[in-house]
Amino acid sequence: MGDQIQFIVEKLNQEPFRKNYNLISFDSLESLQLLQLLSDVLGEIDPKHAVDIREEQPEQTAKRMLNLLGILKYKPPGTVPDLSAFRQGLVTGSKTVIHPVLHWLLQRTNELRTRAYLARFLVKLEVPAEFLQDETVADFNKQYEELMEAFKNLHKEHEQLKISGLSTAEIRRDITAMEEEKDQLAKRVERLKKRVETVQNHQRMLEIARQLRLEKEREESLAQQKQEQKSQLFHTEQRLQRGQAQLKEMQDVVADSKPESLMKKLEEEINFNSYLVTEKIPREMESKKTSVYFLQKVVAEPAMTQADLSALESEIDEVSAQMNQLTEKRMIKYEPADSKFSMYRQQASIISRKKEAKAEELQAAKEEMSSLERQVEQKSSQAHELGGSEVLSEDEFKQYVIKLRSKNTFYKKKRLEIAEITAEYGILQRTEELLRQRHEAIQQQLQATEEKKGISGYSYTQEELERVSAVKSEMDEVKGQTLDNMSEMVKKLNAVVAEKKASLAPVIKELRQLRQNCQELTQERDEKKIQYDSCAAGLETNRSALEQEVKGLLEECAQEESNYRYINCMKRSLEIQLQRAKEEMKAYVSPDAQERRRAVREQYTRIILEQENLGKKLREKQKVVRESHGSNMKQMKMWQDFQQLMECKRECFLKQQNQAAIGQIIQEGGKDRLVL
């Protein structure tokens, strides 16, 4: 308790509280002052709670503090019997309640400040179910939840950026280096501009250079697209090859196998998948959900002390003892499994465990095969990118075939084992059923015989007595062994304790002297620490004032430097414009005609005259075209008509020629007949 109060006093004497307490003055605080102090600490964590408690009712103060402590996930210590006593102590300002709260808050102020800030946005507003039936209210509630999730993501990104961000000095150095590079580039640009201005048609050359740069960039992008398309084509070809190989394998399997074997294979796959879906995966999901639930529960719990752990261990021991007692009672009360069926049940359980193990091995083999296929695909793509080949050598192919044959043999062997186990399981099930029926028939005969003899229940009572005696003998043996082990353990522990006491006696004597020295040094350290804190507080005040002054001067310097750079740039631009105006004026008033011709005014005047002359020529040409448009259109129409007339004549001439040729052929045919 003394260490707790000392820690609270040290924290309250530091920033931002600066209360200047000592142990005596803090311990002599009244209940109202303690409540105000707690309210100030809560106000430092959440500014909404920085209020004067004299201006509000005690119940309102307690409600406000309890609400914030609940948000901060504070749990009362074990010294407080229940929550009502804690609430009452908070209302009355009890030291046994306020001191642990202050100690807990001051230990993790920064963490709690962040939690209080997040609670303002992440504490969900509970809306009654009857109001959520309204569509508008439901839509607003959904938007509210989406905004809450977006705030969570943004806060995580903000924290990551704060952790991974650069320091201010590095940013300033980078800005300074970039400004220097900018000035150097500006100077180089000015020099190149002056050098280029003396060259004829420099604007056209600059435009051509710009187009060349754009074309090069376009060429690079096209080359990149070509490479990507090549990669996509390669992957597509690989997928096609795999698909063709799978199709060929399936065709070979279909060609070499019979419908019965295919159906059997499909049934095996269906049984395996149904086993995974109905038994294995649900069990795994249930175990994962249970572990996640317990982990979430552990995360939600506050940090546990050694006392809490000891209490939980003792509770676990008590529950384990109760479970053992209940198990013993159950063994005594209920009849055990019949000895005739125990062997078959054990075999059935062994078979089920083997089945589960084989299913897990098969699942692991499938996962390994899929991962190996992904690795092969990655390696193939890498080999293709490096220009390598995927063809295996002769030795590698032989090794691959040998390995494949061994795997095939192993697979067939395991498949036979599974078939044998399945057949054995069916036989055992049938045997168990037959034995159960025989046992029921024998039991009915035995009961009928006992009823006839007038000793009904004799066999059951005898079996029960035998079972109880067997259980009792086993328990007696276990107790005897346990007592022997405990006695031996006690002897060993006593010997070890005596040995440790003898070895620790001189160490304890030295420890007493060292404790005394430690107390003296601790007292001296506390005095020095008080002096250091007072000196450090004064230096910290001076440092903060100097930092503010330096910050103001740096901002003023940056503003003046920005103004200087702006004025300098404006001055340079005005000087360039003035220089160009002087050169233009000099060329314009120069007596040399060649020099005047270089002036911009003369150039534009000459261009204007050339354009005016060109416009006059074009207008004259337009006038001539308008005047001759009608006659030209008539001439074109006449020429089209003449072309149609000539086309008709050509067709008529061709028809006459065809008719003459046909007549000549007929005449020749007639002459031939006459000759015959």
TrEMBL record:
Residues 137-232, 309-382, 504-563 form a coiled coil. InterPro entries: IFT81, IFT81_CH, IFT81_N_sf. GO terms for biological process: cell differentiation; cilium assembly; intraciliary transport; spermatogenesis. It comes from the Eukaryota. Residues 3-126 form the IFT81 calponin homology domain. Its main location: cytoplasm. Belongs to the IFT81 family. Component of the intraflagellar transport (IFT) complex B: together with IFT74, forms a tubulin-binding module that specifically mediates transport of tubulin within the cilium. Binds tubulin via its CH (calponin-homology)-like region. Required for ciliogenesis. Required for proper regulation of SHH signaling. Plays an important role during spermatogenesis by modulating the assembly and elongation of the sperm flagella. This is Intraflagellar transport protein 81 homolog. It comes from Promerops cafer (Cape sugarbird).
